[in-house]
Design goal:
Helix content is 40%, strand content 12%. By secondary structure, the chain is an alpha/beta fold. The protein has two domains: 158 residues, D-Maltodextrin-Binding Protein, domain 2 (3-Layer(aba) Sandwich), CATH 3.40.190; 202 residues, Periplasmic binding protein-like II (D-Maltodextrin-Binding Protein, domain 2, 3-Layer(aba) Sandwich), CATH 3.40.190.10.
């Protein structure tokens, strides 16, 4: 689940339950074949556009800076409001007849539900054209509901990074693995050489405790069972009790439930649930922990001055699958939807879907995008640059964070709680039954 690029929301999907996204065929329906729509300049300059989203504090300031020049050039006033109560409040505002012109949705399922209820306007032609030219089919599908294209993506992040210290790897004579079996062998080697658990993990996140564990499971489902099973799983066509999902838990358990392998610097296996998800960065930086699994935003939790590079203080490799070289990855991001179709709003939407905006925002630091027109060298850290390359790679199969695509009762409910119970010793079969029981009944 993504809140901008760094944190996660804990608010429930209150008024509108998140359902599965209806995927499209090829490109945004009805879109022209990638015309030169550029940065969304419009002859209909002038006006005010209100924008509502989850992005707050410094990241909100940077986002406003990213479109400031364009807004001035087009004589458009953009009023942004960020809130960590977005999921609850956007439903209230829409049902009360007081929605913003534009909403930045962190969950495709919630976006789809608003489209299904006819709150959102279909995307203008310029946005469709940008989507087909600059975004992969996976991303276009997330903005498509019942055959109609409603909105383009904004930012994106890549999950599944394994963080380590290059100097320690040099000391131990080991290298980043190419397959999951290689990673298990690497883990065993480090444990033998040090006599300590190689891994640290933290699932604690207040009311959202358990979410980092869901990321582990999602990684195994898409890498081992494949994207088709992943899609069926998030739609509950493949239930949690299916052997493919149990296999994902079993593979993750080879590390997370092994007292010889976790929880370095914190305690035993059960300490995973009481360890704050960002605290693992400090232990890895100090050398107490050799390996940890977390998204690219973990860079923000390392001590100030930490260098990120293959020969730096800290680096990361993508969690490998069964076969070397496969690029089946998960991540998060936002989808932009509009409640208004006036000229100023349409021009702004077109700009947000363009390479011009993506490059403007990424240059300011801290975020990435899957826009193919983005220059990776504009990223403000090497790990973000690597994330952009993965997102832009034609061989990458991308899927949105599974818990974000499931109904809130599951994705932000029984799934999170199930991860905690599993770490605490509840059997995998019982945990899977408990998670599956959270699915809303038709």
């Amino acid at each position: 689940m993504g809140l901008s690029q760094r944190f996660r929301l804990v608010a429930p999907l209150a008024l509108l339950g998140a359902t599965g996204v209806v995927l499209a065929g090829c490109g945004a329906p009805g879109a022209p074949g990638g015309g030169d729509t550029g940065g969304g300049d419009t002859d209909a300059a002038g006006g005010t556009v209100t924008v509502y989203g989850t992005i707050v504090d410094d990241e909100a300031r940077l986002m406003e800076e990213s479109w400031a020049d364009w807004a001035e050039e087009n004589d458009i006033t953009i009023k942004y409001e960020g809130s960590q109560e977005f999921e609850a409040q956007i439903g209230t505002r829409a049902q009360g007849g007081n929605p913003p012109d534009v909403a930045i949705f962190p969950q495709p399922g919630l976006f789809a539900e608003f489209a299904k209820r006819d709150y959102l306007k279909p995307a203008p032609e310029g946005v469709e054209s940008n989507a087909n030219e600059y975004w992969s089919q996976d991303w276009v599908d997330y903005g498509t509901v019942d055959g109609t294209f409603y909105g383009a993506p904004l930012m994106a992040n890549v999950k599944g990074w394994i963080w380590y210290q290059p100097s320690q790897f040099d000391e131990w004579g080991v290298t980043p693995p190419e397959t999951w079996d290689d990673l298990l062998a690497l883990t065993a080697t480090i444990q033998e050489k040090t006599g300590n658990p190689p891994w640290c993990a933290g699932f604690e996140s207040g009311d959202a405790t358990g979410w980092p564990g869901t990321d582990w499971i999602e990684d195994f489902v898409i890498r081992d069972a494949g994207p088709d099973v992943y899609d069926q799983w998030v739609a509950n066509e493949v239930p949690f009790t299916d052997p493919a999902i149990k296999a994902a838990f079993d593979e993750a358990g080879k590390i997370l439930l092994n007292p010889d392998y976790v929880n370095a610097g914190f305690g035993d296996v059960r300490s995973i649930n009481s360890t704050a998800f960002g605290d693992v960065a400090t232990k890895l930086a100090s050398g107490e922990c050799a390996l940890t699994h977390q998204a690219s935003f973990l860079t923000g939790f390392f001590p100030e001055g930490t260098s990120f590079a293959e020969d730096g203080d800290v680096w990361a490799f993508m969690m490998p699958g069964k076969t070397a070289g496969e690029l089946n990855v998960t991540g998060g991001g936002e989808i932009v939807g509009a409640f208004s179709d006036d000229a100023a709003t349409q021009a702004f939407l077109e700009y947000l879907s363009s390479p011009e905006w993506a490059n403007s925002r990424v240059k300011l630091g801290g975020v990435t995008s899957a826009n193919k027109g983005l220059d990776p060298s504009n990223a403000q850290s090497p790990i973000l640059e690597e994330s952009i390359k993965i997102l832009q790679d034609e061989n990458t199969t991308f899927r949105f964070d599974g818990s974000d695509l499931m109904p809130g009762a599951v994705g932000a409910g029984t799934f999170w709680k199930g991860m905690v119970a599993w770490i605490n010793g509840t059997s995998v079969d019982e945990v899977l039954k408990q998670i599956e029981a959270g699915w809303p009944q038709d």
